[in-house]
């Protein structure tokens, strides 16, 4: 179902019982989502709501979740089956709370006030795309060089002062966006 741009404040407990592959509830007034353990949808869009948390049970098979412009500060363990997340414009200041998450391929964390990435960032081995635009990052962990599948990395409008030399190990990297990092004065020699 597509229920975007309404004034929905609450969903029935059996809401997830649908054969639809997409559920769009963006631009509503939701503060909570019921558990949805046995649904068949692949995409959930609950962006632009008032969510402070996500359900503890997520349906098997869901691959893409968009929850940008909410009030989230963490992700429940069961939600880590999802491979593609848009978590921008939330309150996730510590992305270390997302670990471990071995199947994560794409994540958008722009506009979250993140000042530090986890030292074991390389544990996200499947990551192909990361958007960290408009945060407060001053450095990147050396471990980022272990992300050999990483193709696109957005770091616009942060406070980066340097890039670790291990970035040269990101052999699949085809797009690196570093615009508007006023303290970034030089690149590593191996870059």
Would you write up a description of this structure?
The radius of gyration is 18 Å and the shape is elongated. 0% of the residues lie in helices and 13% in strands. The model has no long low-confidence stretch (mean pLDDT 89). The chain has an 8-stranded parallel beta sheet with strand order 1-2-3-4-5-6-7-8, with no helix packed on it. It is mostly beta strands and 191 residues long.
Order of helices and strands: EEEEEEEE
The beta-strand count equals 8
Helix-strand makeup class: mainly beta
Number of helices: 0
Question: Key terms for this structure?
Answer:
mainly beta, 0% helix, 8 strands, eight-stranded parallel β-sheet, 191 residues
Brief characterization of the structure:
With 191 residues, the protein is mainly β. It has strands at residues 22-24, 43-45, 64-66, 84-86, 106-108, 129-131, 152-154, 175-177.
Q: Secondary-structure map with pairings?
A:
Layout: E1 22-24, E2 43-45, E3 64-66, E4 84-86, E5 106-108, E6 129-131, E7 152-154, E8 175-177
Parallel strand pairs: 1-2, 2-3, 3-4, 4-5, 5-6, 6-7, 7-8
């Amino acid at each position: 179902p597509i229920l975007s741009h309404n004034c929905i404040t609450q969903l029935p407990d059996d809401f997830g019982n649908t054969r639809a592959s997409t559920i769009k509830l963006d631009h509503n007034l939701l503060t909570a989502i019921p558990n949805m353990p046995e649904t068949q949808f692949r995409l959930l869009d609950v962006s632009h709501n008032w969510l402070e948390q996500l359900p503890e049970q997520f349906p098997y098979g869901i691959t893409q979740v968009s929850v940008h412009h909410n009030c989230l500060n963490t992700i429940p363990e069961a939600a880590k089956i999802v491979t593609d997340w848009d978590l921008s414009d939330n309150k996730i200041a510590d992305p270390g709370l997302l670990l471990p998450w071995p199947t994560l391929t794409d994540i958008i964390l722009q506009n979250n006030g993140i000042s530090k990435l986890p030292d074991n960032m390389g544990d996200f081995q499947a990551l192909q795309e990361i958007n960290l635009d408009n945060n407060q990052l001053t450095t990147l962990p050396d471990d980022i060089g272990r992300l050999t599948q990483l193709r696109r990395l957005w770091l616009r409008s942060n406070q980066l002062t340097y890039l670790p030399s291990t970035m040269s190990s990101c052999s699949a990297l085809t797009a690196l966006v570093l615009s508007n990092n006023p303290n970034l004065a030089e690149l590593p020699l191996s870059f």
